[in-house]
Amino acid sequence: MKFLVEKIPLRLRPCVYPAVSFVAGLAVALILNYIFYRVGLPSKPFIYVAF
Amino acid sequence: MSENLPQLPPGPDQGFRPSWFLGGVAIGLAALAFLGRQAGRTDYHPDFIRLVTAVTPEDNYYPTVDELCSIVRTKCSPDQVLVIVGGNSILAGVWQPAAELWSEKLQADLGPRYAVVNLAFRGSEPTDGGAVIAEALRREYPRQIYVANEALVTGEDTYGSDPYRFLFWQAYFSGRLMRFPIRDFRVREYLLDKVRRKESLDIVIRELADRVLRFHDLWNRIGYEHFFTVPNMYGGAIPELLAPRRDFPDEERDVTDPELADKWYPPSSEAAELAIVRGTCQLTYEMTPGGVWEMTPATRSEMHRTLMEAFPDPLKGRTLILISRSSPHYISQLTPLEQAHYDQAARETVAIWKDVGYPCIDYGRDFGPEDFGDRTHLSKFGGKKLADLVAVEIREIAVRRGYLK
Predict the structure, then answer these.
(1) Residue A19 belongs to a domain
(2) Are residues B277 and B331 in contact, defined by beta-carbon separation less than 8 angstroms?
(3) Pairwise CB contact (< 8 Å): B29 & A29
(4) In a domain, A21, yes or no
(5) Contact B163/A46, CB-based, under 8 Å?
(6) Per-residue DSSP letter, B326
(7) Does A47 fall in a domain?
(8) Is B32 in contact with A25 (Cβ distance < 8 A)?
(9) Contacts B20 to A, Cβ<8 Å
(10) How many domains does the structure of chain A reveal?
(11) Based on C-alpha coordinates, what's the Rg of chain A?
């Protein structure tokens, strides 16, 4: 990470960690949203499938 | 080794930022909820005719209330009388290709003053799917008629049947259903039953979370238009598993196609189907000491109770119930006495529905074996006859309720 930061212009470096943290938050939101969807699906097989 | 790595000066720009991270989570969830809300308000089922298997729970796709309401809004303008078809696979048109679906014939019979939307699911009850959508749209489309079918001598659950109850819960917890005290009581009774405490908690949490986060609408639209992520019978592995639902066409076959001759009343299932037809009345009727064949008092009172509770009173009069008789291919194999009992059960089932306040007819008595694809499902020929019968009833209901003024 630090190696990558070194490649960023000095004036932009203060934004790197907040930006990365924010994007990580967005990614977690997407994962959470999908998990909510998946766990909300009924676990019992549909009647015709069950037969 | 680490001593040779370039070091950043210590300062506030280094390290993980919890506040930025939590902000990202909050903004991300809000943005996804917005997208889900937009998805629910969009009809992304172009040229909808009926619910094909790929967009039903049979294939792990659970359409939402908003998704189905959007389909209705596309098909029905405010100046038309809305006719929503619910019920089971018979009204969904199993054995009828889309081009000759009975509800399309019904639309043609009724003309442009009516808009027919077929929301029937396979194996569902009259209080499932289409009933929920019609009730949710009662203010937007006050001139509406709901059509569903049921078997002889069968009661209803006021909150629908298990595989399709997800739609009822969505509508119930988002406040889109009418106040109906007895139904509210049954719902509380169901949710507070100790046996299903965990299931009830799951339902409440899921519905309240979905009401805020709208994940179901969002992932349904992604699954329909872009890629589907839930294991399903169409594809057990990637890439088939990921195929968007819109890629699966309506493949319902025409039972009258000569290629399917072996599936039309197959001899291998003859005995089993006849046993089902004979069993229709055996458990619900008894012979009195005077030699009269009568519906048991318990059956009659239970039917009466469940039909009273099935739909809110203001909606009963606009709910047309079709009692589905079995194919004459099987009825004709019963003894004359058994046939008389079957006719009596059909007549009395219609009478009970009517007595409770529903318009109700039975169909199939004057149909021929060619009008059915099997014991219960109609062929395209039977579908046309059914459409003609239903169109007459719908027009009568529309006139009676003042929909055409």
Answers:
(1) yes
(2) yes
(3) yes
(4) yes
(5) yes
(6) P
(7) no
(8) no
(9) 17-19, 21-22, 25
(10) 1
(11) 21
Within 13 Å of residue A16, how many CA atoms lie on the same side as its CB? 20
Rounded to a whole number of angstroms, the distance from the CA of B169 to the nearest CA of chain A is 12
pLDDT (tens digit per residue) in B205-258: 999 999 999 999 999 999 999 999 988 776 667 888 889 999 999 999 999 999
Q: Which domain holds residue A23?
A: 2-40
On whether the CB atoms of residues B85 and B91 are closer than 8 A, the answer is: yes
In the numeric block, which tokens belong to residue B174? 């988002």
Residue A49 lies in a domain: no
Nearest Cβ partner for A48 among B21, B58, B209: B58
Instruction: Please indicate whether, in this complex, the C-beta atoms of A17 and B13 are within 8 angstroms of each other.
Output: yes
Q: Which of B20, B27, B219 sits opposite A37 (nearest CB)?
A: B219
Per-domain residue ranges of chain B:
22-400
* CA dist., res. B310 & res. B289, Å (int): 34
Cross-strand bridge partners of residue B387? none
Nearest to B24 among A2, A25, A47 (CB): A25
pLDDT digits (tens, 9 = 90+) for B259-311: 988 888 999 999 999 999 998 888 899 999 988 999 999 999 999 999 999 99
Distance CA B300, CA B287 (A): 15
How distant, in Å, are the alpha carbons of B1, B52, B325 from that of B58? 59, 10, 25
DSSP string for B342-385? HHHHHHHHHHHHHHHT--EEEE-TT--GGGBSSSS-B-HHHHHH
Q: How high is the ipTM of this complex?
A: 0.87
Cβ count within 10 A of residue B348: 21
